[in-house]
């Protein structure tokens, strides 16, 4: 009788939640169609401007450009995840006994975006720049389900477990050996890597010593902010485009990946620091993997799983956190920063870099390296 009464009382709440999910899904579907039309018109403009031959021709890069696959920036290695057996590629530099600094890239990049930090911090830390699954030289399992958010988070957890320092046995009262204590790592994420880093640090704070986030929103903040700010909805229009099948792959490939090039190199979307603008070879370091047959689909599947019902951690990471943000970020509204600051612990640090865009590790490599070195080198570890 009591169970029936409880079920009856909860029925309106269940109905409201079901309606809310339906409305949210309809909203995403409408936004995806609208974005598809808008970007489709851009594709038509490219066709009229360049003609069919140049528009529908894209070059598969046969050889990696200098720096991508050689040892210029560090040693190339692979690891196998314990559960899935998936092989992930990473580049490492620094003393093997130094603290582990794990770097997670975003879209549409790969480990190469961390090349400056590998050089600048590789003398004091064991720096590891990972290729996330589906990117670069890491394996690219087929199917959208292989890129669910919970799968990606588990990848990072296992990478920390494999590459991090081994547990040490502590000494308890009276000199007795205590339980193993996990030695932690420094976790740094940009863009998609930052989104993953937020949630790994929240769900596994015992594995992370300090957290650094660069131009990456927390899911708990982003949804509400986007609903209240039309400007962010427009800046994020590509996210809705990526919900569609095949069309994003086609549009991103047009005119030898013109849209990707524009995002990385244009004066208003790309790197703001003129001294750090990407060369043709540096752009090819990203296009090399994306241009391979099927190379665009795995990164886009990250976005296609973004609106699934994956639980969002509501509590901010308990560990020391540094939030770095480019003041001229073209993809993320600057008003997001105070919203993110409010969801962090009072001890968290925030640094807004004037004149910097979204691609912070390449836009301002020297200031970013100094800020990281100072933050990681201070002694404010959590207890």
Q: Can you offer a commentary on this structure?
A:
By secondary structure, this protein is an alpha/beta fold. It has one domain (20-165, 182-377): Alpha/Beta hydrolase fold, catalytic domain (Rossmann fold). Helices cover 45% and strands 15% of the residues. The protein has helices at 2-55, 115-121, 149-163, 192-203, 219-228, 230-235, 237-241, 247-265, 280-290, 297-304, 336-342, 360-363, 365-377, and strands at residues 75-80, 87-93, 100-104, 126-130, 168-171, 177-181, 185-190, 208-214, 321-326, 349-353. The strands form two sheets. Strands 1-2-4-3-7-8-9-10 form an eight-stranded mixed β-sheet, with helices on both faces. The longest helix is centred in the N-terminal third of the chain and has 54 residues, at 2-55. It starts with a helix and ends in a 6-residue tail after the last helix.
Label the structural class. Answer: alpha/beta
Question: What is the CATH class name?
Answer: Alpha Beta
The best one-word shape is globular
Oligomer: single chain
In terms of DSSP E residues, the strand content is 5-15%
Compute the CA-based radius of gyration: 22 Å
Count of helical regions: 13
